[in-house]
Design a protein that fits this description.
The protein is 23% helix and 27% strand. The protein has 2 domains: 125 residues, Nucleotidyltransferase, domain 5 (2-Layer Sandwich), CATH 3.30.420; 87 residues, ATPase, nucleotide binding domain (Nucleotidyltransferase, domain 5). It starts with 7 loop residues before the first strand and ends in a 20-residue tail after the last strand. It has 5 helices and 12 strands. The longest helix has 16 residues. The protein is α/β, with parallel strands linked by helices. The chain has a 6-stranded mixed β-sheet, with helices on both faces. Strands 6, 7, 8, 9, 10 and 11 form a 6-stranded mixed β-sheet that branches.
Length: 237
């Protein structure tokens, strides 16, 4: 009989990155990842089938599914939401939604454990980026700001020498504004980090709705957080 204890499926389709990871009962992790515009509708489901088949598992063998819950691409987030609703329909497998920027920051923390402050960003429309600043204490991430849509030329107001910066759209930030910042490109981002966050979910599974770091959600009621400009935003340090 398959031991289900560690079987976790993780899905990321919030940006141009499409990544799926699966950990099996032997703690082996399979990862599929591709980057490109408009690839999620095709590759997300292909990657899910591939990792399940390679591991010899079905959805019913899982003890949890983790998915990026926003901010990010509207289309990408909707595709993942539809996918998990279909996969988990009429099943008792728990679903967890993870703040995409927490996931990016966790990727940076793994890549460079010396970082004490991490800026996570996602490319947005026009002259804006989604942004959230985290501090690292005892190998845990703590948000210093809420998710906000910021103008690119305002980001330098939040940055200090030696901070880390990870995400998408970094190429749009003027070089002078990030000259003393440690840049981690999006190659550091893959869905296996979502599995690590699942293991630490009790640290981040906050009751406070406004935090939206990690939340357990009912699959059929899952709706990503798009963080449009009507949502509250916290400014400055």
């Amino acid at each position: 009989m398959t031991q289900k204890k560690h079987n976790i499926l993780a899905l990321d389709s919030a940006t141009k990155i499409c990544s799926v990871a699966l950990r099996n009962s032997e703690n082996n992790v399979l990862v599929k990842k591709e980057k490109g515009l408009g690839i999620h509708s095709e590759l997300l489901f292909v990657f899910i089938d591939e990792v399940l088949n390679e591991a010899g598992l079905t959805i019913d063998d899982l003890v949890g599914v983790v998915v990026t819950a926003g901010p990010g691409s509207y289309t990408g987030l909707r595709i993942a939401a539809s996918a998990v609703k279909g996969l988990l329909f009429n099943r008792s497998v728990p679903l967890y939604g993870v703040n995409t920027l927490l996931y990016f920051a966790a990727s940076a923390m793994q890549k460079d454990p010396e970082l004490t402050r991490i800026h996570a960003v996602i490319d947005a429309r026009r002259v804006h980026l989604y942004h959230q600043l985290f501090t690292v204490k005892n190998n845990e991430l703590h948000p210093l700001t809420d998710v906000a849509i910021r103008k690119i030329d305002e980001l330098h107001d939040y940055m200090e020498k030696g901070d880390g910066l990870i995400g998408t759209g970094i190429h749009r930030i003027p070089v002078d504004n990030i000259a003393d910042i440690k840049i981690l490109d999006d190659e550091s981002i893959q869905a296996s980090v979502l599995i690590d966050l699942y293991d630490q979910r009790e640290k981040y599974l906050l009751v406070d709705e406004s935090s939206k770091l990690i939340q357990q959600v009912i699959p059929e009621e899952f709706n990503p957080h798009y963080y449009n400009k009507s949502e509250p935003q916290v400014s400055k340090k």
